[in-house]
Amino acid sequence: MCGIVAALAARNVQGILLEGLKRLEYRGYDSAGMAVMESGALMRQRAQGKVAALEEKLAERSLTGSIGIAHTRWATHGKPSEVNAHPHLAGDRVAIVHNGIIENFEPLKRELESDGVVFESETDTEVVAHLIDRAFATCHDLLAAVQSVLARIDGAYALAVMHVDAPREIVGARKGSPLVVGVGIDENFLASDTLALLQVTDRFVYLREGDVVRLSARHGIEVLTADGEPAARDVQVYEHGDSAASRGDYRHFMLKEIHEQPAVIAATLEGRLSGSHVLESSFGVGARALFERVKQVHIIACGTSYHAGMVARYWLEKLAGIPTTVEVASEYRYRDVVVPENTLFVTLSQSGETADTLAALRYATSRADDLTEQDGQGYLATLAICNVPGSSLTRESDLSLMTQAGPEIGVASTKAFTTQLVALMLLTLALRRSRGDEREAALVQALRGLPGVLDQALAMDGPIAALSEAFAEKHHALFLGRGTQYPIALEGALKLKEISYIHAEAYPAGELKHGPLALVDADMPVIAVAPNDELLEKLKSNLQEVRARGGELFVFADEGVALTAADSLRVLHVPAVDEFLAPIVYTLPLQLLSYHVAVLKGTDVDQPRNLAKSVTVE
Ligand code: G6P
Questions:
Q1: What domain range includes position 226?
Q2: Does ligand 1 lie within 6 Å of residue 611's CB atom?
Q3: What spacing in Å lies between the alpha carbon of 614 and ligand 1's midpoint?
Q4: pLDDT beneath 50: ranges in the chain
Q5: Residue 381's beta-bridge partner residues?
Q6: H or E segment at 422?
Q7: What's residue 610's pLDDT?
């Protein structure tokens, strides 16, 4: 939610800030802005809409200076407009960019207004600008001014601030929203993620909760804890290169990311399998001993990651015999959760920064402490399955398993989801009690062959592009699946609604007759995911119920499924695979379907309206 980037260099920073914003645009894209210190004065350009609109303005009147801050916004307080776009100023002395929400901004705003401050925007951020302006007027030190204001604000933030009277400094802070420091040679940077800064450096300091940082020409990088104590933070080298930021020959990032799945799944498996079993050490030091004690698993996630958790529940219960619950983080965090003995708490998150998931982890950790005090019980351990190294979720969990999807830019998640599924299969096998049996050996072998099967699934692109024409004029669609394919149907429906704006719902096929069947007619395409598994015959009966009501059916099935295409029934063959891995393989054609429908409809595939990739607000 919102991307921020800041630069303090010896060269003009407009180009660096602009490129940083383009790379952060996945975090929000309803307005963008930049402020640069030009000959001792703060100069600002802002535009409603995407970064490209700001770029046009900068082409007319560029900003020139070696210190600046910039922002791309996903609106929370105040509608998307130029006046609400960041950076916000106070008295032409302070400029600030902010990601997050200041929860107590209303009383603070009233206080400032009664003191004569006139606000330009409807944002919570502008309050912080004015508070810093006042604090600086007293202490004449930007770092001290920011620290004193942070003590007064509640909520989540990552921010970067400049002041005309501290012309060679930028102060940043983070609490609840991500912020990294990019370390250069005689130049330093701040950004919401590393991707924004890979254009200028591969060395980063990952700030911790509550950290405040000052970049200055005189002192370089100074990090202080929330208590104001100097903090030593390691500089880490990012080793994955910078190619991920480009679309290559693909028309959209989403299509590129769909096609990367065989390679990133191979990378996720690399070094984690030995012979015919999974290496528990992949999950961190001590994982093996911990896993032996696990009697129950609680999985928490949001959005697409939640769907991955739903698949894992079937796997963990069937293959490992471990009772498992799966819940969206925004519900879990406000419940009085009962934690059975020896429960492993698992979070799934592409970004590792999703506000609700992070809050759920913190709640689980605090709950564990409470329960431990009461009756000796609590969570056994916390495990994060995550795609971003150094993210808050991985840092705050006992164990972690990194998916190796690489940066995912398309807002609709694709490769992050399938690599999560692979990671969850690794977890399932690691938790399985009966080690070394034929089932485990067969699954490990099937995992090794999975990238090849996914390559075959991608070859369905042509037929799926042709099929997508049947959807472009439709307003609704229904997805059906059973067992592990029910969450895949949910994910297929989510993809379609996210990027093509077609209202899509998913049901477990057995529930069809309990309501949704009433909606079925020729205008409601029904998509069924039908691998050749033990539930196939039951699913076939459900499909007959649709056909009998004149519904138009599109069935994704493997060749072994005896279904003959007919007028109202189109069958697309998906490559066969071990039934436990079928949810991973069947995801790809559904991703391709939503992609092609969106392209036909002419929507913004990579940046669908109203959405953002990283949701760092509640
Ligand atoms: C947003 C994204 C989704 C993602 C969800 C959870 O809604 O648009 O693609 O699934 O957040 O994100 P996470 O990073 O925690 O997986």
A1: 3-245
A2: yes
A3: 6
A4: 376
A5: 344
A6: helix 415-431
A7: 84
